[in-house]
Design goal:
Layout (H helix, E strand, L loop, with lengths): L5 E3 L4 H11 L5 H19 L6 E7 L4 E7 L5 E7 L2 H11 L4 E2 L2 E5 L6 E6 L10 E5 L2 E2 L3 H12 L7 E9 H10 L4 E8 L1 E2 L5 E2 L5 H6 L2
Parallel strand pairs: 1-11, 4-5, 4-6, 4-8, 8-10, 9-10, 10-11
Antiparallel strand pairs: 2-3, 6-7, 12-13
The chain binds uracil.
């Protein structure tokens, strides 16, 4: 059977609550930042549920021996925030994955062409072949930014099956591009919106995530 992009919208009340807070135009910047951090926490929790490598061993409790399961420290976990707004999701992701390595990717959109430009790339030239990569990109709109981030990773030998994306809002145009190019990819998002307007904003969306987060 042909592979197809998997997009999960966790039916969790906390995810829906913080999405509502983030969408509300009356939410001040400090609370908006908290909302994105909380979404980063819960979406990461959901995204790693069946994905974080574990190992089983025997331990001694104060009373007896028993089996125990631990996160496997041999498998490198990498989190990649897409700047600027990905920094909010990263903060939440790090509370769940405190030992992950963080590599920053800075992308800015040309407001006329809507093309993404990479102004900061801290990715290593290659990754461990067993690496698991979590990308934090709050707004998957036209798909320009996330497609460029995916290209940077696959050029460095990372297989799309080893990558998961967390986003606050995923819009159809981005999902279509990702699904065509990387059908083995998995995405966790708080919601899916249908529309991207002609200046590249998701509708209803939440506005400019970076501006709202940093009060600019
Ligand atoms: N980036 C944002 O911050 N908001 C959108 O609606 C689309 C892209």
């Amino acid at each position: 059977m042909a592979l197809q992009l998997r997009v999960y919208v966790p039916p969790h009340p906390l995810v829906q609550h913080w999405l509502g807070v983030a969408r509300d135009a009356n939410t001040p910047s400090s609370l908006f930042r908290s909302a994105i951090t909380e979404l980063g926490r819960w979406l990461t929790y959901e995204a790693i549920r069946d994905w974080l490598p574990v190992l089983e061993t025997t331990i001694q409790t104060p009373l007896a021996q028993c089996l125990a399961t631990f996160v496997n420290p041999q498998v490198p976990i990498v989190v990649i925030p897409i700047l600027r707004a990905g920094l909010g999701l990263l903060e939440g992701a790090q509370t769940v994955l405190p030992l992950a390595s963080i590599y920053h990717l800075g992308m800015v959109r040309n407001e006329e062409t809507l093309e993404a430009n990479c102004y900061l790339n801290k990715l290593p030239s290659e990754f461990d072949q067993n690496v698991r990569v979590l990308i934090c990109d709050p707004m998957l709109a036209t798909g320009g930014t996330i497609m460029q981030a995916m290209a940077e990773l696959t050029q460095r030998g990372v297989d799309p099956t080893a990558i998961r994306i967390i986003s606050v809002i995923a819009a159809k145009p981005a999902l279509k591009k990702l699904g065509t190019a990387y059908p083995s990819l998995t995405i966790y998002t708080a919601t899916i919106d249908e529309i991207v307007n002609d200046v590249g904003y998701i509708v209803p969306g939440l506005g400019d995530a970076g501006d709202r987060m940093f009060g600019t």
